């Protein structure tokens, strides 16, 4: 897009947590950043990287909208902790958690931003329902320039033969939040370390505490996931039983226990 045709996001603050454990993941991040830069304007992106050493350097892109924060961490990826850290850095009323390998429809996304910012129906909003996996040459072409027009032909009811449905529905990937609502429920629980469970826990807590969390059930509002090392992802899923068990606890505990846990989590943001 030309500078005049970029879509303004009204100062939206993105939160992207990241670990460049493989070349595919490093490439995916660059594709996401290129897409956001060529599609939108008037936003700030907090890129929170946790690793033994950085695999992203701001000088690669030189985008003044990006705030790169590196946190040394040689353990399992601490997504929940990093998200909460970024929320404390944010200063606006609307935030967006955005995975480093996901692409939203640029038609629906700004509508969802405005719905959360100005509307009264949703405290949290996923600008999609299902997630389609992008692989092979199409993925490489998109990463090279971030042009959504490459992906647009694959929207619709039918799933293209060249793609698979990664998720029929998920509470994670890309989520817009009223910042005050996120803090009121305590944010992500930092007990979740490694892959899985943290989004389910947050959704359950949000619903039990009365937050209005919605998705956009429109085939054209699908997300595109940039494929990466599925072998390691499957291994991570298999090893995440502890996180899944912890998320299940949030559904089972009493209202009093939930209130006490939330009160402890909220203290981080004080």
UniProtKB/TrEMBL annotation:
Domain named Galactosyltransferase C-terminal: residues: 167-228
SUPFAM superfamilies for the chain: Nucleotide-diphospho-sugar transferases (SSF53448)
Tree of life domain: Bacteria
InterPro entries: Galactosyl_T, Galactosyl_T_C, Nucleotide-diphossugar_trans
GO molecular function, a single term: galactosyltransferase activity
Keywords linked to the UniProt accession: Transferase
Transferase in keyword set: yes
Gene Ontology terms: biological process: carbohydrate metabolic process
Identification of the protein by name: Galactosyltransferase C-terminal domain-containing protein
Lineage, top ranks: Bacteria, Pseudomonadati, Pseudomonadota, Betaproteobacteria, Burkholderiales
């Amino acid at each position: 897009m030309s500078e005049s045709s970029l879509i303004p996001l009204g100062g939206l603050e993105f939160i992207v947590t990241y670990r460049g454990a493989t070349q595919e993941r490093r490439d995916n991040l660059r594709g996401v950043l290129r897409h956001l830069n060529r599609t939108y304007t008037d936003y700030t992106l907090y890129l929170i990287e946790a690793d033994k050493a950085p695999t992203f350097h701001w000088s690669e892109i030189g985008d003044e909208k990006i705030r790169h924060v590196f946190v040394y961490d040689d353990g399992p990826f601490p997504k929940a902790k990093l998200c909460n850290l970024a929320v404390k850095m944010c200063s606006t009323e609307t935030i967006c958690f955005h995975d480093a390998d996901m692409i939203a429809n640029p038609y629906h996304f700004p509508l969802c931003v405005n719905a959360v910012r100005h509307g009264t129906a949703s405290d949290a909003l996923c600008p999609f329902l299902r997630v389609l996996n992008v692989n092979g040459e199409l993925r490489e072409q998109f990463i090279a320039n971030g042009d959504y027009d490459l992906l647009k032909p694959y929207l619709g009811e039918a799933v293209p033969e060249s793609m698979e449905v990664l998720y029929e529905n998920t509470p994670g990937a890309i989520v817009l939040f009223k910042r005050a609502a996120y803090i009121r429920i305590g944010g992500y629980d930092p007990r979740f370390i490694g892959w899985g469970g943290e989004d389910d826990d947050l959704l359950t807590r949000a619903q039990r505490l009365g937050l209005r969390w919605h998705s956009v059930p429109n085939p054209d509002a699908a997300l595109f996931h940039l494929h990466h090392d599925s072998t390691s992802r499957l291994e991570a899923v298999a090893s995440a039983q502890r996180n899944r068990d912890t998320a299940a606890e949030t559904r089972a505990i009493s209202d009093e226990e939930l209130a006490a846990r939330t009160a402890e989590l909220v203290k981080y943001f004080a």
